[in-house]
């Protein structure tokens, strides 16, 4: 659908075409598709790239991963680099420079025009994960006294350079944000209409220091395409567009999913063996330490186990069920925090609910396992011991599944990070302790 | 920022204002905010709602959860319902009707105008999770012979009703999709320019039966705001907009995260106790069965454990580490499938990598635990037994972390579903079997 031409034919035509033919050919292709083509044909990478117009090279650089962007740019002369940089918007330039070391970023900044350089320097002062760090400076702003016709003429000149032309911000002489008009409203209005008549005054903006995850939540909640970023005085600093937000949402959820699964947030399914091992081994070693901790608890009770060896058989059930119940609570709480659904207001209620879930499911699972234990060992006390241990462990599991991520959040650590390790450690250590401890207390009835 | 007025004051002003005052007041408020206000003031819900203009009630119905939409609508007379329905777009109406039983949907369809009713009937024929099921019929289409000025006049009439005015599709007389022009290109062009001169011919579209998750991947890849949906003959059927995609992405990732965590996909952190128990208990019972399976393996070896009781102490380490390694592989593979990064082409390479990750990390962790086992029991063979068992278990863990979701995907079952249960079962059962089996074989050297 996206590429009507066969890829090889496309490659041939780019390599053998005149500049004009290539310009015409690539006009309707998406830079992402061309970047894919380049990656699939590494030998012809540079040769193809050199045939492309500057604006397209700029788009391709932007679509490339941050750490690879400069690798593409470096292949060109300084003069050509200047032309390519000219075609990039301020947030794209900031992403590019942000990934470089001091030496390289100096080189790049030197090749920008003065205005872009100033914009990038300013954007680099914001934290990368905040509204300021992801916004672009290329927004459209007009005064409310203009007419639709004047605005359309202004757009004919300015829209091609803007990050988005679909929302135009209405500002006063001091750049203070007064409202917004949509391009849809503009084209739906008569040429003589005044901007003031179609301005929406209650414009929803975000402060420059808002965390990007919170910005993404606002976009999702309101279904916006664009949001303006303002400072303390409501002066408009830049805009954020939905396409950047979609990328951020995907990044943030991948990060959460990876952290819950005990992986580095940047590991890729199609990455290298070395990267995978670097991502996983540290977590496995942390887990080894916690597993040894759990094992030591069992070690304390070796005397009991040697007398009632069936305890060893039931150990995996107690630990496993606690781990599962803990993971359930943890998952719902971590996702609730990420979606902004778990707030200060409802935290108490959610905690109470988790406690009751632990108690209820603990009683059900505990009753089943008690009956099973009784049948297996033909001993009522054995059944009661494992049943009670199960209830206690599932209660602890849901509690820690709630408490651990909430504490991490308070400490401003990502709740998904390390939560799983802490929760499993708690359920393993306490699970074995309850089970084997109770068995030791009632040992005389078990032998 | 979003609501300058205090909420209580806003409520007062809506309740006591004249129709005109209220119209003016709510014009710049976002329907999401008004819906929040209504939910926070249940007693005044209906009274406030009745003061609002029809278009805003329509927006509020659309923002409400699917199963609650009709509850709002029902509060009004048939005549008023007709007016509200008139203000809703075809995809919104389809969401509304799709959530109702036959009786209720008949009532709603009866109150729509003929065109909307026809649109909704048609949209309901597509599967809800496909491109056809999420598209809207209100798109803008023009012929390539028009000028910019003619197009602007067409937009002044049609844009207010359209789902988006930012992309206008160029079609021939048979509604076959020929290209696309952006509103930005239109406003950046001279009034006399022909549409043909600014048409992008290589428009990327999606077939009506494409799964919504794949549609979302395309949006993310290309950074689009809108995509057209076509049939087999490339006739344009409707459009999908990014704001719907953002909601779908969030739904789909929540679903994946929940399933990986052993939860029902629809459980909410702020939901009821009953819903939580209904979501979790079935999974816990499935897990109980698999835990009993693992326990039975241990049960087989009770004789061995009774002779070397330290085996019981080391059991949690072997099982726990296998579970962790399996979860890591599972997480990266499930996320890779969801992001479209694990494909038929690279599956073999990824499998080989997972195998090598299992082997490498297994050797590292196995070596550590072998030394520890040797020190604990002062017995080299004990160290070797647990070390080798660890290597085998971690190898099996990464393998099953890859194979289980890939098989589920082939069977067209969501890979996130049940994967965790299968993988933990495999690592628990085989982990205990390797460890206790090897110990039994070498029992004479361990006593």
Automatic annotation (TrEMBL), chains A, B:
Transmembrane feature ranges: 281-301, 313-334, 355-375, 381-408, 420-446
Subcellular location: Cell membrane; Membrane
Domain CBS: 135-197, 198-255
InterPro entries linked: CBS_dom, CBS_dom_sf, Mg_transptr_MgtE_intracell_dom, MgtE_N_sf, MgtE_transporter, SLC41_membr_dom, SLC41_membr_dom_sf
CDD domains registered for this protein in UniProt: CBS_pair_Mg_transporter
Pfam families membership: CBS, MgtE, MgtE_N
SUPFAM superfamilies on file: CBS-domain pair, MgtE membrane domain-like, MgtE N-terminal domain-like
Annotated Gene Ontology cellular component terms: plasma membrane
Entry keyword set: CBS domain, Cell membrane, Magnesium, Membrane, Metal-binding, Transmembrane, Transmembrane helix, Transport
Topology within the bilayer: Multi-pass membrane protein
PROSITE patterns from the UniProt entry: CBS
Gene Ontology MF terms: magnesium ion transmembrane transporter activity; metal ion binding
Protein task: Acts as a magnesium transporter.
The family this protein is said to belong to: Belongs to the SLC41A transporter family.
Subunit record text: Homodimer.
NCBIfam families reported for this sequence: mgtE (TIGR00400)
Protein name (record): Magnesium transporter MgtE
Organism listed in the record: Clostridium collagenovorans DSM 3089
